[in-house]
Amino acid sequence: MGALKYAILGLLYQKNMTGYELTKEFETTLLQSWRAKHSQVYPELKSLTEKGLIQYEVKIAGNVLEKKEYSITEEGKNEFLQWAVKLNPIKPIPKDEFRLQLFFSSCIKPEERLLLLENQFTNHHNRLLELRKAIKKFSSIPPDDETEFGDYLVLLGAIMNEENTCKWLKKCITMCQEKMGIEVAAEN
Amino acid sequence: MGALKYAILGLLYQKNMTGYELTKEFETTLLQSWRAKHSQVYPELKSLTEKGLIQYEVKIAGNVLEKKEYSITEEGKNEFLQWAVKLNPIKPIPKDEFRLQLFFSSCIKPEERLLLLENQFTNHHNRLLELRKAIKKFSSIPPDDETEFGDYLVLLGAIMNEENTCKWLKKCITMCQEKMGIEVAAEN
DNA sequence: TTAAAACATGTAAGTATTGACATGTTTTAA
DNA sequence: TTAAAACATGTCAATACTTACATGTTTTAA
Asked: For residue A188, how many C-alpha atoms fall within 13 Å in the half-sphere facing its CB?
Protein backbone atom coordinates (compact mmCIF):
# COMPACT_ATOMS: atom_id res chain seq x y z
CA MET A 1 0.00 0.00 0.00
CA GLY A 2 2.93 2.26 0.55
CA ALA A 3 1.36 4.10 3.48
CA LEU A 4 4.03 2.91 5.91
CA LYS A 5 6.30 5.48 4.34
CA TYR A 6 3.90 8.32 5.18
CA ALA A 7 3.18 6.99 8.65
CA ILE A 8 6.90 7.22 9.43
CA LEU A 9 7.30 10.62 7.75
CA GLY A 10 4.27 11.89 9.66
CA LEU A 11 5.63 10.74 13.01
CA LEU A 12 9.02 12.30 12.29
CA TYR A 13 7.27 15.49 11.16
CA GLN A 14 5.97 15.73 14.71
CA LYS A 15 9.15 14.79 16.55
CA ASN A 16 12.61 13.21 16.11
CA MET A 17 12.58 9.54 17.00
CA THR A 18 14.54 6.27 16.91
CA GLY A 19 13.33 3.14 15.11
CA TYR A 20 12.44 1.65 18.45
CA GLU A 21 10.30 4.63 19.41
CA LEU A 22 8.59 4.65 15.99
CA THR A 23 7.73 0.97 16.43
CA LYS A 24 6.19 1.76 19.81
CA GLU A 25 4.01 4.45 18.21
CA PHE A 26 2.61 1.81 15.85
CA GLU A 27 1.72 -0.31 18.89
CA THR A 28 0.02 2.55 20.73
CA THR A 29 -1.12 5.85 19.16
CA LEU A 30 -1.26 4.59 15.57
CA LEU A 31 -2.95 1.29 16.45
CA GLN A 32 -6.31 2.45 15.06
CA SER A 33 -4.98 3.55 11.67
CA TRP A 34 -1.75 1.75 10.76
CA ARG A 35 0.55 -0.92 12.13
CA ALA A 36 4.08 -2.19 11.47
CA LYS A 37 6.51 -4.49 13.23
CA HIS A 38 10.10 -3.44 13.90
CA SER A 39 11.20 -5.87 11.18
CA GLN A 40 9.38 -3.69 8.68
CA VAL A 41 10.27 -0.35 10.30
CA TYR A 42 14.07 -0.72 10.22
CA PRO A 43 14.36 -1.61 6.51
CA GLU A 44 11.91 1.22 5.66
CA LEU A 45 14.03 3.71 7.65
CA LYS A 46 17.06 2.60 5.66
CA SER A 47 15.21 3.05 2.38
CA LEU A 48 13.83 6.50 3.33
CA THR A 49 17.33 7.59 4.36
CA GLU A 50 18.72 6.49 0.99
CA LYS A 51 15.98 8.51 -0.74
CA GLY A 52 16.97 11.59 1.29
CA LEU A 53 13.56 11.96 2.94
CA ILE A 54 14.92 11.42 6.44
CA GLN A 55 18.34 11.48 8.12
CA TYR A 56 19.80 10.27 11.41
CA GLU A 57 22.25 11.19 14.10
CA VAL A 58 23.92 8.52 16.25
CA LYS A 59 23.49 9.06 19.98
CA ILE A 60 25.16 7.10 22.76
CA ALA A 61 22.91 5.91 25.57
CA GLY A 62 24.63 4.75 28.75
CA ASN A 63 28.19 3.67 28.00
CA VAL A 64 28.14 2.11 24.55
CA LEU A 65 24.60 1.58 23.23
CA GLU A 66 24.17 3.30 19.88
CA LYS A 67 20.78 4.83 19.05
CA LYS A 68 19.90 6.34 15.69
CA GLU A 69 17.76 9.40 16.11
CA TYR A 70 15.90 10.08 12.88
CA SER A 71 14.64 13.44 11.66
CA ILE A 72 12.69 14.46 8.56
CA THR A 73 14.42 16.46 5.81
CA GLU A 74 12.88 19.35 3.83
CA GLU A 75 12.37 16.97 0.92
CA GLY A 76 10.64 14.54 3.28
CA LYS A 77 8.35 17.29 4.57
CA ASN A 78 7.36 18.17 1.01
CA GLU A 79 6.49 14.59 0.13
CA PHE A 80 4.56 14.13 3.35
CA LEU A 81 2.50 17.30 2.94
CA GLN A 82 1.67 16.38 -0.65
CA TRP A 83 0.31 13.03 0.54
CA ALA A 84 -1.49 14.63 3.49
CA VAL A 85 -3.91 16.61 1.29
CA LYS A 86 -4.46 14.03 -1.46
CA LEU A 87 -8.07 12.98 -2.09
CA ASN A 88 -8.19 9.19 -2.33
CA PRO A 89 -10.99 6.84 -3.44
CA ILE A 90 -12.26 4.63 -0.59
CA LYS A 91 -10.69 1.22 -0.09
CA PRO A 92 -12.64 -2.02 -0.69
CA ILE A 93 -14.32 -3.47 2.39
CA PRO A 94 -11.47 -5.15 4.32
CA LYS A 95 -11.13 -8.91 4.28
CA ASP A 96 -12.41 -10.53 7.44
CA GLU A 97 -12.10 -14.20 8.26
CA PHE A 98 -15.02 -14.15 10.69
CA ARG A 99 -17.38 -12.67 8.11
CA LEU A 100 -16.22 -15.41 5.72
CA GLN A 101 -17.04 -18.00 8.36
CA LEU A 102 -20.47 -16.45 8.89
CA PHE A 103 -21.06 -16.35 5.13
CA PHE A 104 -20.61 -20.13 4.99
CA SER A 105 -22.35 -20.84 8.30
CA SER A 106 -25.30 -22.66 6.76
CA CYS A 107 -22.87 -25.62 6.58
CA ILE A 108 -22.70 -25.89 10.37
CA LYS A 109 -25.25 -26.47 13.15
CA PRO A 110 -27.26 -23.42 14.28
CA GLU A 111 -25.84 -23.85 17.81
CA GLU A 112 -22.31 -23.70 16.44
CA ARG A 113 -23.10 -20.54 14.50
CA LEU A 114 -24.43 -19.05 17.71
CA LEU A 115 -21.17 -19.94 19.50
CA LEU A 116 -19.16 -18.20 16.77
CA LEU A 117 -21.31 -15.07 17.06
CA GLU A 118 -21.18 -14.99 20.85
CA ASN A 119 -17.40 -15.42 20.87
CA GLN A 120 -17.05 -12.49 18.49
CA PHE A 121 -19.40 -10.37 20.56
CA THR A 122 -17.47 -10.98 23.77
CA ASN A 123 -14.16 -10.11 22.12
CA HIS A 124 -15.44 -6.98 20.38
CA HIS A 125 -17.18 -5.81 23.53
CA ASN A 126 -13.92 -6.15 25.46
CA ARG A 127 -12.12 -4.14 22.81
CA LEU A 128 -14.84 -1.49 23.03
CA LEU A 129 -14.25 -1.17 26.78
CA GLU A 130 -10.50 -0.78 26.16
CA LEU A 131 -11.07 1.95 23.58
CA ARG A 132 -13.47 3.81 25.87
CA LYS A 133 -10.78 3.70 28.53
CA ALA A 134 -8.24 5.06 26.03
CA ILE A 135 -10.33 8.09 25.01
CA LYS A 136 -10.53 9.19 28.64
CA LYS A 137 -7.07 10.75 28.22
CA PHE A 138 -8.92 13.60 26.47
CA SER A 139 -10.78 15.59 29.09
CA SER A 140 -12.35 17.63 26.28
CA ILE A 141 -12.18 17.82 22.48
CA PRO A 142 -8.64 19.05 21.62
CA PRO A 143 -8.19 22.24 19.54
CA ASP A 144 -8.18 21.49 15.79
CA ASP A 145 -4.62 22.79 15.33
CA GLU A 146 -3.12 20.37 17.88
CA THR A 147 -1.75 16.94 16.93
CA GLU A 148 -4.18 15.45 19.47
CA PHE A 149 -7.18 16.45 17.37
CA GLY A 150 -6.48 13.83 14.68
CA ASP A 151 -5.81 11.24 17.34
CA TYR A 152 -9.16 12.10 18.95
CA LEU A 153 -11.17 11.84 15.70
CA VAL A 154 -9.63 8.46 14.82
CA LEU A 155 -10.20 7.09 18.32
CA LEU A 156 -13.80 8.29 18.22
CA GLY A 157 -14.23 6.47 14.91
CA ALA A 158 -12.77 3.27 16.36
CA ILE A 159 -15.19 3.43 19.30
CA MET A 160 -18.23 4.08 17.10
CA ASN A 161 -17.08 1.22 14.91
CA GLU A 162 -16.86 -1.26 17.77
CA GLU A 163 -20.23 -0.10 19.10
CA ASN A 164 -21.75 -0.74 15.70
CA THR A 165 -20.06 -4.15 15.37
CA CYS A 166 -21.46 -5.15 18.77
CA LYS A 167 -24.91 -3.96 17.69
CA TRP A 168 -24.69 -6.02 14.48
CA LEU A 169 -23.52 -9.15 16.32
CA LYS A 170 -26.34 -8.80 18.88
CA LYS A 171 -28.82 -8.47 16.02
CA CYS A 172 -27.40 -11.59 14.34
CA ILE A 173 -27.61 -13.49 17.63
CA THR A 174 -31.25 -12.45 18.13
CA MET A 175 -32.16 -13.41 14.55
CA CYS A 176 -30.50 -16.81 14.93
CA GLN A 177 -32.25 -17.47 18.23
CA GLU A 178 -35.61 -16.56 16.72
CA LYS A 179 -35.02 -18.93 13.79
CA MET A 180 -33.96 -21.66 16.21
CA GLY A 181 -37.02 -21.01 18.37
CA ILE A 182 -39.28 -21.44 15.33
CA GLU A 183 -37.63 -24.75 14.52
CA VAL A 184 -38.02 -26.04 18.06
CA ALA A 185 -41.66 -24.93 18.01
CA ALA A 186 -42.21 -26.68 14.66
CA GLU A 187 -40.89 -29.94 16.14
CA ASN A 188 -43.56 -29.91 18.86
CA MET B 1 -3.83 -15.25 6.34
CA GLY B 2 -4.59 -18.48 4.62
CA ALA B 3 -8.35 -17.86 4.44
CA LEU B 4 -8.33 -17.91 0.62
CA LYS B 5 -8.07 -21.69 0.89
CA TYR B 6 -11.27 -21.90 2.93
CA ALA B 7 -13.11 -19.39 0.76
CA ILE B 8 -12.48 -21.65 -2.25
CA LEU B 9 -13.31 -24.84 -0.34
CA GLY B 10 -16.51 -23.22 0.92
CA LEU B 11 -17.63 -22.18 -2.54
CA LEU B 12 -16.91 -25.65 -3.93
CA TYR B 13 -18.75 -27.17 -0.97
CA GLN B 14 -21.83 -25.36 -2.26
CA LYS B 15 -21.39 -26.10 -5.96
CA ASN B 16 -18.87 -27.31 -8.57
CA MET B 17 -17.18 -24.39 -10.32
CA THR B 18 -14.38 -23.33 -12.67
CA GLY B 19 -11.58 -20.96 -11.68
CA TYR B 20 -13.26 -18.25 -13.68
CA GLU B 21 -16.56 -18.71 -11.86
CA LEU B 22 -14.82 -18.76 -8.48
CA THR B 23 -13.10 -15.47 -9.34
CA LYS B 24 -16.49 -13.96 -10.19
CA GLU B 25 -17.84 -15.01 -6.80
CA PHE B 26 -15.03 -13.01 -5.16
CA GLU B 27 -16.12 -9.99 -7.20
CA THR B 28 -19.80 -10.34 -6.27
CA THR B 29 -21.19 -12.47 -3.40
CA LEU B 30 -17.96 -12.65 -1.39
CA LEU B 31 -17.08 -8.97 -1.86
CA GLN B 32 -18.04 -8.13 1.75
CA SER B 33 -15.91 -10.84 3.36
CA TRP B 34 -12.99 -11.89 1.14
CA ARG B 35 -11.46 -11.02 -2.22
CA ALA B 36 -8.95 -12.57 -4.63
CA LYS B 37 -7.88 -11.88 -8.20
CA HIS B 38 -7.72 -14.66 -10.78
CA SER B 39 -3.91 -14.50 -10.56
CA GLN B 40 -4.22 -15.74 -6.99
CA VAL B 41 -7.12 -18.13 -7.57
CA TYR B 42 -5.50 -20.28 -10.29
CA PRO B 43 -2.29 -21.03 -8.36
CA GLU B 44 -4.33 -21.77 -5.22
CA LEU B 45 -6.53 -24.22 -7.16
CA LYS B 46 -3.39 -25.97 -8.35
CA SER B 47 -2.05 -26.20 -4.79
CA LEU B 48 -5.36 -27.47 -3.35
CA THR B 49 -5.54 -30.11 -6.09
CA GLU B 50 -2.03 -31.30 -5.22
CA LYS B 51 -3.06 -31.57 -1.57
CA GLY B 52 -6.03 -33.71 -2.58
CA LEU B 53 -8.61 -31.29 -1.16
CA ILE B 54 -10.23 -30.62 -4.53
CA GLN B 55 -10.22 -32.28 -7.97
CA TYR B 56 -11.23 -31.28 -11.49
CA GLU B 57 -12.81 -32.59 -14.63
CA VAL B 58 -12.04 -31.05 -18.01
CA LYS B 59 -15.12 -29.96 -19.94
CA ILE B 60 -15.23 -28.71 -23.53
CA ALA B 61 -17.21 -25.55 -24.15
CA GLY B 62 -18.10 -24.76 -27.76
CA ASN B 63 -15.63 -26.47 -30.11
CA VAL B 64 -12.27 -26.46 -28.36
CA LEU B 65 -12.27 -24.30 -25.19
CA GLU B 66 -11.20 -26.35 -22.20
CA LYS B 67 -12.76 -25.57 -18.83
CA LYS B 68 -11.69 -27.18 -15.57
CA GLU B 69 -14.66 -27.85 -13.38
CA TYR B 70 -13.49 -28.21 -9.78
CA SER B 71 -15.22 -30.20 -7.05
CA ILE B 72 -14.40 -30.68 -3.37
CA THR B 73 -13.14 -34.08 -2.13
CA GLU B 74 -14.14 -35.79 1.12
CA GLU B 75 -10.80 -34.72 2.59
CA GLY B 76 -11.52 -31.15 1.49
CA LYS B 77 -14.95 -31.25 3.13
CA ASN B 78 -13.39 -32.39 6.40
CA GLU B 79 -10.82 -29.59 6.43
CA PHE B 80 -13.45 -27.01 5.52
CA LEU B 81 -15.89 -28.09 8.24
CA GLN B 82 -13.12 -28.07 10.82
CA TRP B 83 -12.31 -24.47 9.92
CA ALA B 84 -15.99 -23.50 9.78
CA VAL B 85 -16.57 -24.11 13.52
CA LYS B 86 -13.24 -22.81 14.84
CA LEU B 87 -13.41 -19.99 17.39
CA ASN B 88 -10.90 -17.30 16.42
CA PRO B 89 -9.64 -14.25 18.31
CA ILE B 90 -10.68 -10.97 16.65
CA LYS B 91 -8.32 -9.37 14.16
CA PRO B 92 -6.58 -6.05 14.86
CA ILE B 93 -8.39 -2.97 13.55
CA PRO B 94 -7.65 -2.97 9.80
CA LYS B 95 -5.14 -0.51 8.39
CA ASP B 96 -6.77 2.45 6.69
CA GLU B 97 -4.91 5.11 4.78
CA PHE B 98 -7.67 7.69 5.25
CA ARG B 99 -7.64 7.28 9.03
CA LEU B 100 -3.86 7.72 8.89
CA GLN B 101 -4.35 10.93 6.91
CA LEU B 102 -6.89 12.15 9.44
CA PHE B 103 -4.57 11.25 12.31
CA PHE B 104 -1.93 13.60 10.87
CA SER B 105 -4.38 16.26 9.71
CA SER B 106 -3.22 18.92 12.16
CA CYS B 107 -0.38 19.42 9.64
CA ILE B 108 -2.78 20.73 6.98
CA LYS B 109 -5.23 23.64 6.77
CA PRO B 110 -8.64 23.11 8.41
CA GLU B 111 -10.31 23.68 5.01
CA GLU B 112 -8.22 20.90 3.51
CA ARG B 113 -9.14 18.53 6.31
CA LEU B 114 -12.78 19.34 5.64
CA LEU B 115 -12.30 18.48 1.95
CA LEU B 116 -10.79 15.12 2.88
CA LEU B 117 -13.71 14.34 5.18
CA GLU B 118 -16.35 15.43 2.67
CA ASN B 119 -14.75 13.37 -0.10
CA GLN B 120 -14.83 10.30 2.14
CA PHE B 121 -18.43 10.96 3.11
CA THR B 122 -19.59 11.19 -0.50
CA ASN B 123 -17.82 7.96 -1.44
CA HIS B 124 -19.03 5.99 1.58
CA HIS B 125 -22.56 7.27 1.11
CA ASN B 126 -22.54 6.08 -2.49
CA ARG B 127 -21.34 2.67 -1.38
CA LEU B 128 -24.12 2.58 1.21
CA LEU B 129 -26.70 3.20 -1.52
CA GLU B 130 -25.19 0.35 -3.59
CA LEU B 131 -25.31 -2.05 -0.64
CA ARG B 132 -28.92 -1.11 0.13
CA LYS B 133 -29.75 -1.87 -3.49
CA ALA B 134 -27.97 -5.24 -3.18
CA ILE B 135 -29.91 -6.39 -0.11
CA LYS B 136 -33.20 -5.90 -1.95
CA LYS B 137 -32.64 -9.31 -3.57
CA PHE B 138 -33.88 -10.71 -0.26
CA SER B 139 -37.63 -10.11 -0.02
CA SER B 140 -37.52 -11.48 3.55
CA ILE B 141 -34.93 -12.94 5.93
CA PRO B 142 -33.84 -16.30 4.43
CA PRO B 143 -34.25 -19.51 6.51
CA ASP B 144 -31.20 -20.21 8.68
CA ASP B 145 -30.43 -23.51 6.93
CA GLU B 146 -30.15 -21.92 3.45
CA THR B 147 -26.85 -20.65 2.01
CA GLU B 148 -28.54 -17.24 1.58
CA PHE B 149 -28.77 -16.74 5.34
CA GLY B 150 -25.00 -16.21 5.75
CA ASP B 151 -24.98 -13.93 2.74
CA TYR B 152 -27.81 -11.91 4.30
CA LEU B 153 -26.11 -11.52 7.69
CA VAL B 154 -22.83 -10.38 6.12
CA LEU B 155 -24.59 -7.93 3.81
CA LEU B 156 -26.56 -6.55 6.75
CA GLY B 157 -23.26 -6.04 8.58
CA ALA B 158 -21.74 -4.23 5.62
CA ILE B 159 -24.73 -1.87 5.44
CA MET B 160 -24.70 -1.13 9.17
CA ASN B 161 -20.98 -0.54 8.89
CA GLU B 162 -21.32 2.00 6.08
CA GLU B 163 -24.17 3.73 7.92
CA ASN B 164 -21.95 4.04 10.97
CA THR B 165 -18.98 5.28 8.92
CA CYS B 166 -21.19 7.97 7.37
CA LYS B 167 -22.42 8.94 10.84
CA TRP B 168 -18.84 9.24 12.11
CA LEU B 169 -17.72 11.31 9.10
CA LYS B 170 -20.71 13.65 9.51
CA LYS B 171 -19.81 14.05 13.18
CA CYS B 172 -16.18 14.84 12.28
CA ILE B 173 -17.35 17.38 9.68
CA THR B 174 -19.63 19.08 12.21
CA MET B 175 -16.88 19.19 14.84
CA CYS B 176 -14.42 20.69 12.37
CA GLN B 177 -16.91 23.30 11.23
CA GLU B 178 -17.61 24.27 14.82
CA LYS B 179 -13.89 24.64 15.54
CA MET B 180 -13.48 26.70 12.37
CA GLY B 181 -16.47 28.83 13.30
CA ILE B 182 -14.91 29.62 16.67
CA GLU B 183 -11.65 30.67 14.99
CA VAL B 184 -13.44 32.96 12.55
CA ALA B 185 -15.42 34.44 15.46
CA ALA B 186 -12.19 34.96 17.45
CA GLU B 187 -10.67 36.91 14.55
CA ASN B 188 -13.50 39.43 14.64
C1' DT C 1 23.42 -8.64 43.23
C1' DT C 2 21.03 -10.48 40.01
C1' DA C 3 17.37 -11.65 37.12
C1' DA C 4 13.75 -9.90 34.36
C1' DA C 5 11.93 -6.39 31.63
C1' DA C 6 12.60 -2.91 28.62
C1' DC C 7 15.62 -0.75 25.37
C1' DA C 8 17.89 -1.09 20.84
C1' DT C 9 18.90 -2.70 15.93
C1' DG C 10 19.14 -5.50 12.62
C1' DT C 11 18.49 -9.93 8.94
C1' DA C 12 16.26 -13.91 6.58
C1' DA C 13 12.89 -16.98 4.95
C1' DG C 14 8.41 -17.57 3.70
C1' DT C 15 3.56 -16.14 2.65
C1' DA C 16 0.11 -13.10 0.63
C1' DT C 17 -1.20 -10.10 -2.73
C1' DT C 18 -1.26 -7.09 -6.70
C1' DG C 19 -0.64 -5.61 -11.42
C1' DA C 20 1.08 -6.61 -15.61
C1' DC C 21 2.05 -9.82 -19.16
C1' DA C 22 0.38 -13.48 -22.23
C1' DT C 23 -2.86 -16.02 -25.05
C1' DG C 24 -6.74 -17.72 -26.94
C1' DT C 25 -12.25 -18.84 -27.55
C1' DT C 26 -17.17 -17.91 -27.50
C1' DT C 27 -21.10 -15.08 -27.34
C1' DT C 28 -23.69 -11.01 -28.16
C1' DA C 29 -25.27 -7.02 -30.16
C1' DA C 30 -24.72 -3.46 -33.60
C1' DT D 1 -20.10 -9.86 -40.52
C1' DT D 2 -17.56 -8.11 -37.40
C1' DA D 3 -16.12 -5.92 -33.37
C1' DA D 4 -16.60 -5.75 -28.52
C1' DA D 5 -17.56 -7.98 -24.36
C1' DA D 6 -17.39 -11.84 -21.81
C1' DC D 7 -15.39 -16.32 -21.13
C1' DA D 8 -11.25 -18.96 -19.85
C1' DT D 9 -6.49 -20.07 -17.92
C1' DG D 10 -2.34 -19.25 -16.82
C1' DT D 11 2.67 -16.92 -15.40
C1' DC D 12 5.91 -13.41 -13.56
C1' DA D 13 7.94 -9.69 -11.06
C1' DA D 14 7.50 -6.72 -7.40
C1' DT D 15 5.70 -5.26 -3.04
C1' DA D 16 3.94 -5.90 1.60
C1' DC D 17 3.98 -8.23 5.61
C1' DT D 18 4.84 -11.76 9.29
C1' DT D 19 7.50 -14.87 12.08
C1' DA D 20 11.56 -16.30 13.53
C1' DC D 21 16.41 -15.74 14.02
C1' DA D 22 20.25 -13.05 16.00
C1' DT D 23 22.63 -10.11 19.29
C1' DG D 24 23.60 -7.10 22.65
C1' DT D 25 22.80 -3.02 26.50
C1' DT D 26 20.43 -0.58 30.18
C1' DT D 27 17.17 -0.08 33.71
C1' DT D 28 14.25 -1.62 37.35
C1' DA D 29 12.65 -4.12 41.01
C1' DA D 30 13.01 -8.06 44.02
From this structure: 5
